[in-house]
Amino acid sequence: MKYLLTLALLASVLASAYSAAEDAVPPDPRVKQIVEELELPRSDTAMRDNPNWHPQRIVASVPAGVAQQMPELEELLRRSAGTVELVIDKSNNMVPSAETLAGADAYIGLCTNAALENASPRLLWVHNYTAGMEECAGLSPQLFQGRVFTNSKRLAGPAIAEHAIAMLLSLATGLPAYQRAQFESRWDRSRAAGAKFGELRGKTLLVVGLGGIGTEIAWRANSLGMLVTATRSSSREGPDFLEYIGLPEELPVLASQADVVVNALPLTPQTTGVFDKAFFDTMKPGAIFISVGRGASTVTSALLAALESGRLYGAGLDVTDPEPLPADSPLWQMNNVIITPHVAAASPASMQRTAIIAAENLRRYVDGGNLLNVVDMQAGY
Asked: Which residue of the set 154, 294, 353, 364 is catalytic?
């Protein structure tokens, strides 16, 4: 009898597993390519091993602006949720109310203090549409303790890298001044006789912050024939197309040797204001500074002084401090400065990847699997 009961129990378990497998939502076929090409990290621990994992109610922010940028997002989320309740919040401020978040164990949207303060005590998983976590990095321990956070790191890497290289090529060839002349219908060849940055081949480019974005920039710079160095906080390991990878304390020495410095840092207490007067004083005279990380990592007054003194050849800024950059900032009027309003990531492909991975993480969460792009909230990225 005991043997028969054991067989019956085993059959019941197998039947339940088979039923769950039938109910499981299959992954989007595009996920595998994204994960492999951008080397998205996967968590070591499956959600089903978390004692608080009981997927019942999930809230996702999809206001009109997000829906316009990622038109397939809502459909992907609904498919990935399977039979679990999914609430689509269309509030334009991307902060679902406490009533909307009541009882929710997962939230997909923007990680902010306001959203988490409205969250249910049951909230276990938060997925952030952007890579930057600074809006919720200063949370009190009780707001993030025991919770799992994921984000969109690496997904906009190709777009941001191309934007950074476009800025570099434009500055190196003097295109901003020529474009200003074009707006004034002036055939002005005087710039061609002036000082030039010169060709990129053989010059050294330093990537400060060798994460997903920094690696994409480094690969493109290497393809242009540049010697590429980098700093990263985690280790000295990296792709073999880099000449050297240093730790943060080596930044002054590496900056003094670089013809181009690219800021690809996340914003943390350690990186805030790292590009200050002392840093620009150590940079190689006539170098170019490109910033596609976070604006607050650069002291704007120090950057302006380095440009006005002629120490820097030019600067390409997709991020500034503050944002928006005030209309009376002298940076706007400089021929050797390119400013874009924090839009380097805004390509159709990066928006599509963001939608696909948000939905894939939802699928994995519901299925109890290993999430992608888990964030260390202590480190801030």
From this structure: 294
Q: Residue 11 pLDDT more than 50?
A: no
Whether residue 171 sits in one domain with residue 46? no
- The domain that contains 91 carries what CATH number? 3.40.50.720
Instruction: Give 347's Cβ-side CA count (13 Å radius).
Output: 14
pLDDT at 4: 44
Question: Is 10 inside any structural domain?
Answer: no
Question: Over 15-53, what HEC string results?
Answer: HHHHHHHHHCCCCCCCHHHHHHHHCCCECCCCHHHCCCC
Summarised one tens digit per residue, pLDDT across range 16-39 is 333 344 457 899 999 999 999 999
Q: Are both 178 and 297 inside the same structural domain?
A: yes
Task: Indicate whether 208 and 313 sit together in one domain.
Answer: yes
User: Of 37, 75, 308, 323, which one is the catalytic site residue?
Assistant: 323
| Phi, psi (deg, nearest 5) at residue 223 | -65, -25
Decide if 79 is catalytic.
no
Q: Does the annotation mark 163 as catalytic?
A: no
Backbone region of residue 162 per phi and psi (left: phi > 0; alpha: psi in -120 to 50; beta: other values) = alpha
Domain count, the chain: 2
Lowest model confidence (mean pLDDT) among 118-132, 145-159, 180-194: 180-194
| Encoded tokens for 34 | 């994204």
Query: What's the domain range around 238?
Result: 157-339
Q: Is the pLDDT of residue 202 over 90?
A: yes
Active site residue 117: no
**What is d(CA 345, CA 29) in angstroms, rounded to the nearest whole number?**
23
Q: Give yes or no: residues 161 and 151 share one domain.
A: no
Residue 370 CB-half CA count within 13 A: 7
